């Protein structure tokens, strides 16, 4: 989508910019503070009058994850049977007199949902959609030199409103910003790659910026823009002056040349910064910046998706916004961990199903090298749930869509704008009209990325072409579970660019095959990358005596989440994740897993979105010796061999014809199974071993390495496993484990991957599942932290963080 023509002129390049000073000048006084602490919270329909009805909390905060679940909740299984309702937040704010003649703004990154904000009893703002940011101007209501009170009402009582777990509360960060009346809003600055020369020696960046005149007089404003390279050195600059009347803006646009640009790519996600400063005379009034990447993206039916001129298949994951045991609370550490888990599993792309993600998650994708399809809405005006976004659509869709695009347009990770998912209007004239309006809204802000949507069928094959009129308003078309239509649609419409915006877990090979064989199919996004809260029972498997039924039929309680991910709720990769990595040739070559035996020996009944329950374990103490057990070996080698206790039980081809897998049936006997990868000469190139565990006798604790992301780490994730005397993880044994902390920290969440557990995510002690759990610790101050885990019969284990 990026223009490929050479620019006619460049404003400033290279060494001219090196003389630029970025030090702030006299008069510059912008302040910014994240308001994370000192909030008080109350859950109930009315604002509490008594002080003892408030509880001190810190942000981000999701009250739903803290409360017990039950099957009578009006949010139903779609929201995981979690409690919702109405919540109140209040906080004191001391406004010093130095804020005289300054603007004061509260920026809310995300509140779910229907937020109302008061200052000193005056209602200042209301915002309905739970996933888009909004700002509240406090300037005229602040009492300087005194303590002011912020009050926020969050109303998530209209249920059901979400098809997945939404969470409830101020679940994303809140920032207080103090700045000059003549100022720069971060939404008003942009940087995008216009052109990269064929020899790679020059990158041309289209930059734009605005200064807002909030003063009472017309002012001549000078804007100075600088591009800063990854080493912190200025490599290009530009300045321009103009007049702005009160309440108006001064805008400039320019093309800046960057010599020898370091491109942003999947394996080298290099970031630059655009710094913009505003001046009135010699007085600097403001300074704002945004990070960006120098990269090109192109889409075509003939060449597929090109990143920096190189063909890339999208190996994608759909992900919801929750952070597992933390609920919807969006910590920067959690966002980066989620992105890293996906990247480490072999994914290179993410679809933010089905709402705008947090800025922290997009920062993580920028810094780690993940591509993003940035999605705005699940539905449009026609409702999927009684109280969903359809009740807000007419009044809010345009402002919400604009908020997403303005906020996210500088993220190099974002390569597509998705305007909807399986919308009910997809076969109607109204849907065509809405899609056209949304596309034009997006293009009025950003023309460098294509507009897309995830669309499923109408129920009958002969009706599918009726969607062509809707698809005409999409630059790239997402097919949800329509793999069988790719070839026939290409024959009808050879210029259509297609990808699987959703696919089943068990379609991993077919999805890869379609993308590998056809240039017009640019990739696949599996449903889903990670298990999530809500949509209770999706991905569930049933024992042989129970017929499988879909998650939308019946009540699946105590199920409260979706077990349809490559990765479980705690961030642990399931065997299907390793299979996908091998199929897409993302680094792994060999893996083996065991089909969990049933009591009768018959096969499992697998529901839609599920896959058979393979487990990386050879510990089955209740299984009689000699019982037949199925072992699957995933391999990128020509052949795979399987051994049990050093005895060969078979050798089978594992090429593309076999979909890179081989299935063996062997008699159970405790010990060791070993899969071997065999090359074309018959040599053993790689071994994969699963060892039986003895009864667990200890608790093993392993702290994940914190991810550096430019800010102080506040969360630590500790993996808990039950292990035998040799340290081997015993997946067949579970125990209730209690946890305690010594040091400046609190336990933010304890969870397992058991989505049918009735335990609360704040419960302590908490039972493991498949011998495993996850503890999330939030640091509250400086100093060392020690976590102790203890269980009857297993003793206690300590780990210092």
Please provide a written account of the structure.
This protein is mainly beta. The chain folds into 5 domains: 15-27 and 183-292, Sandwich (Immunoglobulin-like), CATH 2.60.40; 31-179, Jelly Rolls (Sandwich), CATH 2.60.120.260; 297-530 and 565-582, TIM Barrel, CATH 3.20.20; 586-616 and 618-691, Immunoglobulin-like, CATH 2.60.40.10; 698-800, Immunoglobulin-like, CATH 2.60.40. The protein has 9 helices and 49 strands. The strands form 12 sheets. Strands 22-23-24-25-26-27-28-29 form an 8-stranded parallel beta barrel, surrounded by 4 helices. The relative contact order is 0.09.
Care to give the gist of this entry?
The chain is mostly beta strands and 801 residues long.
SSE class: mainly beta
State the name of the first-level CATH class of the largest domain: Alpha Beta
Query: The CATH topology of the largest domain, please?
Result: TIM Barrel
Poorly predicted sequence stretches spanning 5 or more consecutive residues: 1-26
CATH architecture of the largest domain: Alpha-Beta Barrel
Terminus-to-terminus distance: 47 Å
For the record, the count of structural domains works out to: 5
Shape: globular
CATH superfamily of the largest domain: Glycosidases
Give the mean pLDDT.
Answer: 94
Number of strands: 49
Instruction: For the largest sheet, list the strands in their spatial order.
Output: 22-23-24-25-26-27-28-29
Alpha-carbon Rg, integer: 28 Å
